[in-house]
Every structure is written in C-alpha cells, then in structure tokens.
Design a protein that fits this description.
The chain is mostly beta strands and about 280 residues long. The protein has one domain: 3 Solenoid (Pectate Lyase C-like). Helix content is about 0%, strand content about 65%.
Length: about 280
C-alpha cells in the first residue's frame, strides 16, 4: 500500500507566541481492500474533527501544528492505523492552542475498531457513515460535540466513552448499534441523546461525577432507569416509579427498550422527551 503526504503550507515565521513555527500538512492513504482496521487517534489540543469519506481513501488527515513542538503521526502496519501528533523532546507541556487543528476523514464501508483519545480540544465529531465494530472515546478538559448521524451497519458489543472536566454532548446513541453503551463522565455538563435507530434492546450505563446530566429520549422508545445514588436530584417527568426503578409508561410494550443504569454523585439529572431523530427508535 502507498501513503501520500502533501505539504499544503509551511509557515516558518513565528506567530503570536515566540518560538512557534506553524505548518499545515495533508496526509492520506489509498484504500486497497475492505478488511477490518484498528484505528487509534491521539490529539492533545486545538480544534479536532472527524467525518466519514467515500473517495477511495482509508483516511485523509489535515493537520496544523507547531513543528518545533510536535510531529505528525501516520503509521500503518498489520491492519493497525495510528494517527495524530507526537510531542518532540521531553518535558513539553501541552496546553490549549487556538491555532492547532486536526481534521480527520475515515473511509465508509471499511470495518473500523475506533479508538479516539483527545485532550484540551474543541471537538466536533460525526461518526455517521462509519462501519464500527468497536468504539472507545476518551476526552480530557474539552468542549465536545459527538453525533452519530447515520446508523452503524455493523453490530458492536460495547461502546465506551470517557469524558473528563468537560462540556460534552453526544447525540444519536441508538445509531451506534451496540449491545451496551458505557458513559463515564467527571465534572461538567453532559447531554446524551437516545435518538437513532435502536435495532434491539440495549443497556446504557452512565457514571457521572459532579455536574448536570440531560437525557433526551425520543417518544416511542421504552426506557427503564435504575438510579444508584441518593445524592442526585432526578427530574423524572414522564416516568412512572415502580419499586426501585423509573419506567416510561409504555416500557413493557415498546418495540425497542433501553435499560439505563445511572450512578451519579452530586448534581441534577433530567429526562427530556423529544420527537424521534436520526431514524426511528
């Protein structure tokens, strides 16, 4: 296989902060087959986006980075693809950079076991159109918007999301096509959309630290919420309490049902009912 790298621009004059030399590069790899690929993406700070692409490439990555501090990474070996940037030298503090950016496009139709790891970024990610066999997403102190705008054609056992001190939004959870979805969140404002095309009954496990959690549930989706904490206020409008659990009135008869295990420390949890989006539940 052949990897291509195009240097779109190289700005060697220091900007804004003394000692920074910004470079912009585009890297891509031609698509040769549709065998499964394990993809690991690491990006520390700046603007970060992910989209699907259908143009005969396995990936296309546009990077803007400080070449005095970082170097681009595009390593493909043994059906494993590693993308992102690596720090140069030792004792480099990676802070938020308003000039750095990574734009990533991944191939439609290729089975991907996807691992996204990003830090102090402004993330805008749309996983719609990707064929995912697995998903692991981890973010630090970020402002992250995640959308699954189209149904995943492949089944996955578990999708795991970990968010630190953050403002985090993830929509279209039903489109992940996962048996189990795990959300671990630290401190911040979390919004989860249970819209999408649920193909079978699933389990959503949520562990939240300090902050607020909003669950947006489309009408017609049956949910059962099991709350494992007494220290969090629950706005359960539209739910019926039956014993130790809260259920939507149509839970037993719903075509698709999601069991939600919620473990929350301090804060507020609210359930908001919406019209179905991104396909029917």
């Amino acid at each position: 296989m052949r990897t291509t790298m195009t240097i779109a621009a190289a700005l060697l004059v220091p900007v804004a902060i003394q000692g920074q030399s910004w470079k912009t590069v585009t890297m891509s790899r031609q698509l040769q087959d549709n065998d499964e690929v394990r993809v690991s993406v690491d990006y520390g700070s700046g603007d970060f986006s992910v989209r699907s692409v259908d143009e005969g490439v396995l990936y296309r990555m546009n990077l803007r980075y400080d070449e005095d501090r970082f170097e681009p990474v595009a390593d493909y070996s043994g059906r494993r693809l590693r993308l992102g940037v690596d720090a140069i030298g030792r004792n480099i503090t990676v802070g938020r950079s308003r000039s750095g950016a990574m734009e990533l496009e991944l191939a439609r139709g290729v089975p991907l076991d996807l691992d996204l790891n990003f830090g102090a970024v402004r993330a805008d990610i749309d996983l719609g159109g990707l064929s995912l066999t697995g998903l692991s997403l981890s973010t630090g102190a970020s402002e992250s918007t995640i959308d699954v705008s189209e149904p995943n054609p492949l089944e996955m056992e578990t999708a795991h999301v970990e968010a630190g001190a953050t403002q985090f939004s993830m929509m279209g959870l039903g489109n992940l096509n996962a048996d189990r979805i795990e959300i671990d969140a630290g401190v911040g404002e979390i919004t989860l959309g249970l819209d999408g095309r649920w193909r079978r009954d699933s389990r959503l496990v949520i562990d939240v630290g300090v902050g607020s959690l909003e669950l947006r549930v489309p009408e017609g989706l049956g949910i059962q919420l099991r709350k494992n904490s007494f220290l969090t206020a629950l706005d359960s409008e539209g739910l019926v309490k039956r014993g130790d659990v809260y259920e939507s009135p149509d839970f037993q008869d719903a075509d698709r049902r999601v069991i939600i295990d919620l473990d929350a420390a301090f804060g507020r949890v609210s359930v908001v009912w919406t019209r179905a989006e991104h396909g029917k539940p």
